[in-house]
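Re: that chain you flagged

S.,

Sorry for the slow reply, it's been a week of failed gels. I finally had a moment to sit down with the sequence you sent. For the record, here it is as I used it:
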Amino acid sequence: MEQEREIYLDNSATTKSAPEVNAAILDALEHCYGNPSSLHRLGMQAEKAFGAAKRTVAGLLGVTEGEVYITSGGTESSNLAILGAAEANKRRGSHIICTGVEHPAVYETVKSLASRGFETEFLGVDANGRISLEEFEALLRPDTILACVMHVNNETGAIMPVEALKPVMQKKSPHALLFVDAVQSFGKIAVKPAKWGVDLLSASAHKIHGPKGVGALYVKKGTRIVPVQFGGHQQGGLRSGTENVPGAAGFGAAAALAQQQMEARYAHVRELNHRLRVGIESNIDNVVFNSGDKDGESLPYILNVSFLGIKAEILLHALESKGIYVSTGSACSSNAPAPSRTLLAMGKSKKEVEGAVRFSFSGDNTAEEIDYTVEALVRAVAEIRKYVRG
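Prediction finished late last night. Pasting the structure tokens below so you have them in one place:
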């Protein structure tokens, strides 16, 4: 019996861990099982492995090891950055800016600050899903203490001009901190927080073929931030809790691979994105592309497409029956009944939002897989539309 085909195009939700990552995790489990806080040899060995992983992650960011904290993932990193920075700087002001298209880990955290006495304002985006620097500047005030702007949108791949934000902030809000969610960009394109003037930045391992449950928070040296959990004072007291040495080792291995393969992966994925876009455009009518195709404005790892007249969930399951795995949006909110905040903010219609499917690539995908996906899409869309119209 022929084995069922598997074409995984949901890499923005999570990626398959690389063999090198699995090996690093297993090695740490077997040989670095001591508690990094213990003073004996096994503890020091675990601490050394943990430090080595931090240095690798820091190297990919172009920052120092002491500015990187290992967390349980992008969600914790974002929560710690936002809540820790708001609490530490509340005497300077209470105004916080956030885009309206942030990942729920950021958006919901910022919203929660309203109940703590902070004033929050949300910035809109244009039809391409990108913010306006002019509108961003207009929201800044002398009492602004934090601005939260993601680097790459997790649903459309839109790239925000984060490198241009800090100069604007220094004019009107010199004491405000800049937090960037780089979960979808870290390890895929160059992320340079020090060069861009970013104060806080979150990253995740499982988006770059690393393990789930591991992330990183960059905190620029001298940045005012307080912990949100307390315990054994690990990692300088900012992130207490026994360090996840195997997870960190896997993260380090994934970061090392990303450093080595970033350019090659990007070029390959860019070709796959174009191939799928052309295949859909040439063979299926009544579609709307919600992702741009310009370098620097959109990340090719994501292609969001609306198939008009179809509910995305139906198309998702039709593709799944053919062994093709895609998403209808953010995996972290896929079970929520509310329509996509991102697509609505871009001015998309109800039909466009209902029919939106996200294809997200990795370096493991092939051109042959894309061709098979196009063929399956053509058949599935025609069949579903026939049924709906009937």
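What I noticed first: The first helix runs from residue 19 to 31.

Talk soon,
D.
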